[in-house]
Design goal:
The complex is a heterodimer of chains A (211) and B (193). Chain A has 211 residues and is an alpha+beta fold. Helices cover 45% and strands 11% of the residues of chain A. Chain A is built from six helices and four strands. Chain A has a four-stranded antiparallel β-sheet with strand order 1-4-3-2, with helices on one face. In chain A, helix 2 crosses helix 3. Chain B has 193 residues and is mainly α. Chain B is 76% helix and 0% strand. In chain B, helix 2 packs antiparallel against helix 3. Chain B is globular, with a radius of gyration of 19 Å. Classes of the chains: A alpha+beta (211), B mainly alpha (193).
């Protein structure tokens, strides 16, 4: 009797994955070795059963060539790791500038009033202060001169940041602009999304602020 | 999805630079063209969702494109690719388990109200798929990968490259994986399946 074959070789024989001469020798051996024949039949039944179970998983038609081009996944197209950090930093810087501007406006409102500045200016010029203030007290609540208010009013209606900060060096032909409310009613941002869904540029929009 | 890939990504300590070997960026194009459809097919069978399969496959290839110098030999790229893709597919399938349970419950409720024969068949088919996936997920990673790839029609030589073993070992590994799959399947769902 010829030598027995290993379990792996018998399994490969089942799938006809062995050379023709080895397949023939295994066939001869199975005819004369009841143990190997029993193992072969057992493995054959198990393989058929497992294949039937696995066939429950649906097969999906996949095109020979994917619809998207390989360029979209090529190394040079991958987003740099610093981009999320840069975006977070830019947003943080914008919010910090916003907070500083608001604080600066509050300081001007608290310090600069005509009733307080007039005596100081006159004393520096060697002139005695008048008995009555140069500016009526009713005008004191006007924090800023009327000319300044009129000059700044249009600026408050247009976006404070009217340029986009690019997040990617790759140009895009089309994109989707999405307005995002960072703090509802206070600060908004416009984000340009590319065709692949990635954010390509953004700008801060603060048209509801007046500073 | 990036987190999923990050979790299952194996550590590669060796270095292989395709650019130094004269391949430049073409190595990625060649691997993508050869393996993308099959990776998507395996993942689609595993997850049951082609869109999700394409998403996972894209993430895996994207991850691969960022590590051209992480492989000592070209054969390791294939083994890495299928191992990461299969693990990511199982992770995604597990992550969706809660949503799937809700959907199945809704399907049962719909079946009670409509009593449609087509819906019943669909429900039974989904149940069979779920059983196979549960048992596959309980196997060792390499055994599950081997069964999935074999069911997708890979020959032994391709299986050897995808799993990272010698071609002569595929028969033994496949026989053991099938034996373990059958044992676990019958232990969980009984002999009458």
């Amino acid at each position: 009797m010829t030598a027995c074959w290993s379990e792996g070789e018998l399994r490969a024989c089942l799938d006809r994955e062995l050379p023709a001469d080895e397949m023939e020798r295994i066939g001869v051996h199975l005819g004369e070795c009841p143990a190997c024949r029993s193992l072969y039949v057992e493995m054959s039944g198990r393989a058929a059963q497992v294949a039937e179970w696995m066939s429950a998983l649906p097969e999906v038609e996949v095109p020979a060539w994917p619809p998207r081009t390989v360029r979209e996944l090529a190394p040079q197209r991958t987003r740099a790791k610093w981009v999320p950090v840069a975006v977070a930093g830019a947003l943080a810087a914008g919010l910090a500038l916003l907070a500083m501007a608001v604080a600066n406006r509050a300081d001007r409102r608290a310090i600069v009033t005509p009733a307080e500045t007039a005596p100081v200016q006159q004393a520096a010029a060697g002139i005695a202060p008048p008995a009555v203030p140069l500016i009526e007290t009713e005008q004191a609540p006007a924090v800023r001169p009327a000319a300044l208010r009129s000059r700044r009013a249009p600026a408050a209606r247009r976006p404070k940041t009217d340029f986009y900060l690019a997040l990617d060096d790759d140009p895009i032909e089309t994109g989707l602009v999405v307005r995002v409310a960072l703090d509802p009613g206070a600060v908004q941002a416009d984000v340009i999304l590319g065709p692949d869904g990635r954010a390509r540029a953004f700008r801060l929009v603060s048209d509801k602020l007046n500073f | 999805m990036a987190d999923v890939i990050g979790i299952v990504q194996p550590v590669e300590g060796v270095t292989w630079n395709p650019a130094a070997a004269g391949d430049r960026g073409d190595w990625f194009d060649a691997i993508f063209r050869e393996h993308y459809p099959r990776v998507v097919g395996v993942l689609a069978r595993l997850t049951g969702d082609r869109a999700q399969a394409e998403e996972i496959a894209s993430d895996v290839f994207c991850k691969l494109s960022r590590r051209p110098g992480a492989f000592a030999k070209p054969e390791e790229v294939t083994a890495w690719l299928y191992r990461v893709a299969t693990n990511a597919g199982f992770d995604a399938w597990r992550a969706n388990s809660r949503r799937r349970k809700h959907e199945e419950a809704a399907g049962v409720e719909s079946l009670r109200t409509t009593a449609s024969g087509g819906a019943l068949d669909e429900l039974l088919r989904e149940e069979r798929c779920a059983r196979v996936r549960v048992v596959l997920a309980s196997l060792k990673s390499r055994e599950a990968e081997l069964l999935l790839l074999r069911a997708s029609g890979m020959a032994y030589r391709e299986l050897a490259g995808a799993v990272g073993v010698q071609p002569g070992s595929v028969g033994t590994l496949l026989a053991r994986a099938e034996s373990e799959f059958e044992r676990r399947f019958r232990a969980r769902y009984g002999d009458n399946v």
